Amino acid sequence: MKDILFEDFQQVADEMLLRNKSLLDTLSKLQLAGAKLNRTVIKSVTHCGCISIHGRKQNFKEGYSLEEMKKHVNAQVSGELCGNCRELVEKEMGGLMFYLAAVCNTLRLSMYDVLIKERDELLALGKFNLK
Fold this sequence. Notes:
- It is a single chain.
- This protein is mainly alpha-helical.
- The chain has a single domain, classed as Helix Hairpins (Orthogonal Bundle).
- Helix content is 66%, strand content 5%.
- It has helices at 2-16, 23-48, 66-72, 83-106, 111-125; strands at residues 51-53, 77-79.
- The protein has a two-stranded antiparallel sheet with strand order 1-2.
- The longest helix has 26 residues, at 23-48.
């Protein structure tokens, strides 16, 4: 069922993509969509203030086990996206996914298969696949 959703999304993206059909154009639009997402999240901090980012060095200490490390690291974000910012972030994420689907289509890849392979690799490598 979930693979059908991915296939349907890819098909719709393929039907809607006209002007940027070239792989080079699509890749540059994917990068632009990522930049727009970044900018929208940043505006949630700097213009709206619904979330705050408290960037600092993560508290890793030598000799910590993986479980101990998990307890001491965090995303360094406080607050929650307000309704308006959430809507804008979701819109930009959708655009990013659209161009990712377009790249998959151009290269004849299945987004679902890519997702499953990445999931399986993460599960197989476990703690040795820290990203």
